[in-house]
From TrEMBL, chains A, B:
It comes from Brockia lithotrophica. Keywords: Antiviral defense, Endonuclease, Hydrolase, Magnesium, Metal-binding, Nuclease. Pfam families: CRISPR_Cas2. PANTHER family: CRISPR-ASSOCIATED ENDORIBONUCLEASE CAS2 (PTHR34405), CRISPR-ASSOCIATED ENDORIBONUCLEASE CAS2 3 (PTHR34405:SF3). The gene is cas2. This is CRISPR-associated endoribonuclease Cas2.
Length: 96, 96
């Protein structure tokens, strides 16, 4: 599964800053950071369920926003990238 | 078409702050802001091409990141939302 995780965490409080770090840390286990608050993940259904559950339990529903997008088809079908691109496509042959 | 526009604009300079405002303004013409730097758009192919062209010409390729995602299927198939949700689904019946 190709998944996109986007979040806006309210960092006006120390707790909010902690939530932001925990959300980012949770995402880095399975996903690649492609923008400040945006991660792309190539994961299986079990990993996705685990990550989703983890993130839901970190955010504050009244202060934060978490949007998870399910992306379908091959990469070139679902994303167009302009400017700086931090994504490494591990499916492509590695040219040494 | 359902489109998601995500951007990270480098605002260290006055020009960068101007680019950020112009990107956001361009998106608001067709799309709904769902997070700080994230817009969801329900648009036709012609509008999409116009908006994409506009955005490509605003950003600085060396400093900014623009990622455009094409979302397929019905909303419940491509997005899961937790916490604050700013999106208004105009396709749903309006309950007065």
């Amino acid at each position: 599964m190709n998944i996109l995780i986007a979040y806006d965490v309210n960092t006006e409080t120390v707790e909010g800053q902690k939530r932001l770090r925990r959300v980012a840390k949770a995402c880095t286990e399975y996903c690649q950071r492609v923008q400040k608050s945006l991660f792309e993940c190539y994961i299986n259904a079990e990993q996705f369920e685990k990550l989703e559950h983890l993130l839901i339990n970190i955010i504050d529903n009244k202060k934060d926003s978490l949007r998870i997008y399910l992306l379908y088809g091959a990469r070139e079908r679902f994303v167009r990238v302009y400017g700086i691109d931090r994504y490494i496509d591990f499916e492509k042959p590695l040219i040494l």
